[in-house]
Amino acid sequence: MTRLSRRPVVAIIGGGFTGAVLAANLARNMPEHTADVFVFEPRSRLGAGLAYDTSDPAHRVNVPAARMSLLTDDPDDFLRWLAAAREPRDDPDALAADGNLYPRRTVFGHYVSDFVAPLLASGQIHHCRERVIQIARTGDRWAVKADGGTEVLADIAIIATTHPAPCPPQHISGALAGHPRFVPDSTSSGALSVICAEDRVLIIGNGLTAADVIASLRHSGHRGAITAVSRRGLRSRGHATTAQEPFGDFVTDPSRTARTLLRRVRLALQQVPAEGRSWHAVFDALRAQGGDIWRALPVVERRRLVRHLRVYWDVHRFRVAPRIDAVIAQGLEHGDIGVIGGLVKEISQHGETIIAKIRHRHTNHSETMKFDACVVTTGPAHASILKSQRWLADLAEGGHLQLDAVGLGLACDDQSRAIDGNGNGNDTLFIAGPLARGTFGELMGLPQVNEHAIFVADRVARRLERQFRFGPVAKTA
Questions:
Q1: 100, 239, 247, 373: which has the fewest C-beta neighbours closer than 10 Å?
Q2: Are 344 and 355 in contact (CB under 8 A)?
Q3: Least confident of 144-148, 264-268, 406-410
Q4: Helix and strand totals (H; E) in the chain
Q5: Burial environment of residue 176 by CB neighbours within 10 A (0 to 12, 13 to 18, 19 or more)
Q6: Would the pLDDT of 15 be above 70?
Q7: Is the pTM of this model over 0.90?
Q8: What is the dihedral of CA 399, 403, 406, 407, to 10 degrees?
Q9: Structure confidence by residue, pLDDT tens digits, 223-272
Q10: What average pLDDT does the segment 387-406 reach?
Q11: Which own/partner contact pairs does 306-311 have at CB distance under 8 Å and 24+ positions apart?
């Protein structure tokens, strides 16, 4: 079915958190019914996406609920929604010792969906429950085709999809192909159901996804030994036990090299105990100032940060909820969870037994271990973004898209406009959410993703106002 409109049309590809919040703010920014906003999202509701479309009770938000409001001028909005919805219900583990709430992710997904619902009901946003299969340039518009037959001719297209799925190391995926308990992508629904209660589990990777896997296994009654292997053997940290104000100024006379920035961070970490605070306060300051810090660095220095320091940033920045941290800490103490810094040099299957030869990072000692299951949690395959969906590859082949120079997503300018093959920003094609990290830096958690979605909505609304003169753009919340 072809959807035609006499009004300007915006097509948002991806209706997870970023796409839903972007659509809602765009609709709120414009006079009612002056533009048609189509969100292409195959899931039944907007706002859940990969992160919040989970029924796993072990999956929790990693940020206190008090910091997860969608309204930047009303920080208590999510807390009021929780109270009105009588959430979190039947979930005593949601309340941490410091008094903060860490509800299940599905609860936050419902909050985002409720945020968008009135705009869907009024017709200001149209949810197309289909998957985009093609985007092509037609004159000065974008012809968007979906697998259910819907076609939209859009004046502006916004790519708001998430990162591609993990890509297991080739020697592991090849060796374990066909094994009944090899899980190459733990984020797919029901992926862990193949693992039995007593299985010895090897986890490749040790970030937030690995923490989720451990929490999910233990919640489902798994009792077997779990071993997580990552290059450096670092695991995601927990939150501070008491509230702290951020500590450190990294934007006044900002660093121009990764080395200088590292020195400033180390100095702040040395100074922060005298202020009665922990390292958490320094990383909270880095997170809040992240966009300005990132933009001050030349591309070559951004690459250096990603190559050498990203893993250290990730394990301190992306913290696990207290309940999940407690499960992992208990397992480490009891010895039924182990963390190894090293590499899986060889792996094979003998019957249903997985045999892995692991070389330890600091000693170079190699150890042969036996497992019954293997789960890959190595994170998104950034290099495969353009191959992850055919329409992205088509846009790149047509000269409309390219990967960013840092290797984190898609290239865009400081207005979040996609940069084409000639290095120019396109006024009608925008990148929103984590795929814009190469330009904007910190775009993987709240509130940064929320703020970026609001920013893109404002840019698009102003672009439409200039082009179609339908009236002044409302001030962004």
A1: 100
A2: no
A3: 406-410
A4: 16, 17
A5: buried
A6: yes
A7: yes
A8: -160
A9: 999 999 999 999 999 999 888 999 999 999 999 999 999 999 999 999 99
A10: 94
A11: 306/406, 306/407, 306/408, 308/258, 309/258, 309/262, 311/231, 311/232, 311/234
- Name every residue whose Cβ is closer than 8 Å to that of residue 461 and which is 6 or more positions away in sequence: 26, 29, 30, 473, 474
The predicted pLDDT at position 50 comes to 78
Both tokens assigned to 82: 């929780």
The 10s digit of each residue's pLDDT in 280-328 is 999 999 999 999 999 999 999 999 999 999 899 999 988 999 999 999 9
End-to-end CA distance of the chain: 35
- What residues contact residue 92 under an 8 Å CB cut-off, 6+ apart? none
pLDDT digits (tens, 9 = 90+) for 323-356: 999 999 999 999 999 999 999 999 999 999 999 9
Among the ranges given (169-183, 377-391, 430-444), the one the predictor scored with the smallest mean pLDDT: 377-391
List Cα–Cα distances, 438 to 117, 288, 289, 406, 451, in angstroms. Answer: 32, 17, 16, 6, 16
- What kind and span of H or E run contains 285? helix 279-288
Cα–Cα distance measured from residue 457 to residue 461, given in angstroms and rounded to the nearest whole number: 6
Token readout for 460 is 């698009």
Token pair in block for residue 319: 């913290």
Closest-CA residue to 283 (of 98, 95, 442, 453): 442
What distance in Å separates the CA atoms of residue 117 and residue 84, rounded to the nearest whole number? 16
Q: What is the DSSP string of 316-363?
A: HHSPPPHHHHHHHHHHHHHTSEEEEEEEEEEEEEETTEEEEEEEETTT
Query: Please, which residues bridge with residue 36 across strands?
Result: 9
Q: Residue 475 pLDDT more than 50?
A: no
What is the length of the chain?
Answer: 477
What order do you get walking across the sheet with 9-13 strand by strand? 125-128, 36-40, 9-13, 156-159, 425-431, 417-419
Structure tokens at 421: 């093959």
Q: pLDDT at position 473, please?
A: 46
Gap between the Cα atoms of 7 and 32, Å rounded: 11
Q: How far apart are CA 166 and CA 242, in angstroms?
A: 35
Q: Tokens 């100024």 — which residue?
A: 249
Are 35 and 440 in contact by the 8 Å Cβ rule? The answer is no
Mean predicted confidence (pLDDT) in 71-97: 95
Q: Which contacts (CB < 8 Å, 24+ apart) does range 84-87 have?
A: 85/110, 85/111
Angstrom CA distances, 232 to 88, 187, 362, 383, 393, stand at 36, 23, 9, 21, 34
- Residue 394 and residue 432: Cα distance in Å, rounded? 19
Say what the pLDDT of residue 3 is. Answer: 58
Q: Which residue do the tokens 């927990």 mark? A: 238
- pLDDT at site 2: 61
